[in-house]
């Protein structure tokens, strides 16, 4: 059988090992640089009085190949910060990814395995809880978590404008009052964030702003000023569409999206991101005006990527690179990260919470699966995972070992309920292996019709064991 079978792999609810941030609270932020070799240029901050502000910008469904639409963002955060060229999300789906951003944990540890399970997140583990407890002023502007009731306050945010997802004339929860606000939602998020930043002139506390526009999620409605903007032509890539998908799982073999479909979504996404880019420039200008540009840690990431008809598929939730590779930028001039460098490490959304807390000199008691980007850690691979919700879908749950040069994927007979609980036999139903050096577009599944000797030569038994260990960690 294509991909073969390797017996039962059961999803475990327990955690056999955890990584904890080390040190003591008394060392504060200066020790971050002193005890951990940092990325080039990082110097840390001198004392708790110099704790950075934090501006975390999370876009929706933004794939990596969208640079044309965010040139102002790149000029600031890339030109005066760090570009992470190998950025990923560990679950390419909105609510699980955002929960990983908040908690620094894989979805199998934080429990939000699908978009319906947002209430499963332990709010005591989030970066906003730790920052608020440490005296930060906290604000949320935009989308929070899928399935979160609009009337409910987002925990550990002092101020919020919570968006019911959409682009024009939407409902919001503004500091506890549900109301309709007319206008384009990205612009409303921009203005609410600017007002939050302006209050830093009189409120001397450090602040944390979580800013999350709906762009570039479907229906990808652009602002009126960009509705007809001409975007650069795109002729696809070798995976759009893939001519022969007989080595792929059934849901890929049956996919029908075309280059024209991919082009149409791409055009709409780029147009919506132009307004995000305007907002980011406005944030930079405001920070400069209030004198807080240098000591604000700014992080920009997409919550997942998006396929533009790669392998005949539109969307996310697959193990293929366009679904889990995302734009990822960081700037913090006061911390020595303002010089415009490129970092080629494998980094992910689970690294954001550890990074923010390390910069702020906060040592949490909760475990992290990610690592601070301010340290010299350099992982050799990443676990990426996704679960089927319910039993009706055509795609099985899957998990993947992703390294710079190779990717191994297992699909499983597993599904989740609306609370994120897992059921199923755990049987491996399909497998894929890609040589990412010679086959970056994932056209040839090396396990299709592979012999046991072929699998040994590819190192599949070792990869399968490592993937099983990662899923239990």
UniProtKB/TrEMBL annotation:
Gene3D superfamilies: Alkaline Phosphatase, subunit A (3.40.720.10). PROSITE patterns: TAT (PS51318). Residues 52-362 form the Sulfatase N-terminal domain. Pfam families: Sulfatase (PF00884). InterPro entries: Alkaline_phosphatase_core_sf, Sulfatase_N, TAT_signal, TAT_signal_bac_arc. PANTHER family: N-ACETYLGLUCOSAMINE-6-SULFATASE FAMILY MEMBER, SD21168P. This is Sulfatase. It comes from Spongiactinospora rosea.
């Amino acid at each position: 059988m294509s991909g073969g079978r390797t017996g039962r792999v059961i999803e475990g609810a327990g955690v056999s090992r955890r990584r904890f941030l080390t040190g003591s609270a008394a060392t504060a932020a200066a020790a971050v640089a002193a005890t951990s070799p940092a990325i080039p240029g990082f110097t840390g901050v001198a004392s708790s009085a110099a704790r950075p502000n934090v501006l975390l910008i999370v876009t929706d469904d933004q794939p990596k190949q969208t640079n044309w639409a965010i040139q102002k963002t790149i000029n600031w955060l890339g030109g005066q910060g760090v570009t992470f060229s190998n950025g990923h999300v560990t679950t390419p789906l909105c609510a699980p990814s955002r929960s990983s951003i908040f908690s620094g944990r894989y979805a199998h540890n934080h429990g939000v395995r699908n978009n319906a399970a947002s209430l499963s997140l332990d709010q005591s583990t989030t970066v906003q809880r730790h920052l608020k407890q440490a005296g930060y002023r906290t604000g949320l502007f935009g989308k929070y978590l899928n399935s979160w009731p609009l009337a409910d306050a987002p925990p550990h945010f002092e101020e919020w404008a919570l968006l019911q997802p959409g682009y024009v004339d939407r409902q919001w929860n503004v500091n506890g009052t549900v109301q309709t606000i007319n206008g384009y939602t990205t612009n409303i998020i921009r203005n609410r964030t600017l007002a939050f930043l302006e209050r830093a002139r009189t409120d001397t506390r450090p602040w944390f702003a979580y800013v999350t526009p709906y762009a570039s999620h479907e229906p990808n409605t652009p602002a009126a000023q960009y509705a007809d903007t001409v975007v650069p032509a795109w002729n696809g890539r070798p995976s759009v569409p893939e001519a022969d998908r007989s080595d792929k799982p059934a849901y890929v073999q049956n996919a029908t999206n075309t280059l024209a479909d991919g082009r149409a979504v791409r055009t709409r996404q780029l147009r919506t991101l132009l307004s995000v880019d305007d907002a980011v420039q406005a944030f930079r200008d405001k920070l400069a005006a209030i004198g807080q540009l240098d000591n604000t840690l700014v992080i920009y990431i997409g919550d997942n990527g998006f396929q533009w008809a790669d392998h005949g598929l539109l969307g996310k939730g697959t193990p293929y690179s366009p679904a889990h590779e995302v734009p990822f930028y960081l700037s913090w001039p006061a911390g020595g990260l303002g010089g415009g460098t490129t970092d080629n490490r494998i980094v992910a959304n689970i690294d954001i919470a550890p990074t923010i807390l390390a910069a702020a000199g906060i040592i949490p008691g909760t475990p992290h699966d990610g690592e601070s980007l301010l340290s010299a850690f350099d992982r050799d691979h990443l676990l990426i995972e996704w679960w089927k919700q319910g039993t009706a879908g055509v795609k099985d749950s899957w998990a993947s070992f992703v390294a710079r040069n190779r990717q191994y994927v297992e699909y499983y007979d597993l599904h989740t309920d609306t609370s994120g609980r897992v059921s199923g036999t755990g049987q491996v139903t399909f497998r894929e292996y890609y040589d990412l050096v010679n086959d970056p577009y994932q056209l040839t599944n090396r396990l299709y019709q592979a012999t046991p000797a072929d699998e040994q030569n590819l190192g599949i038994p070792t990869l399968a064991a490592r993937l099983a260990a990662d899923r239990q960690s």
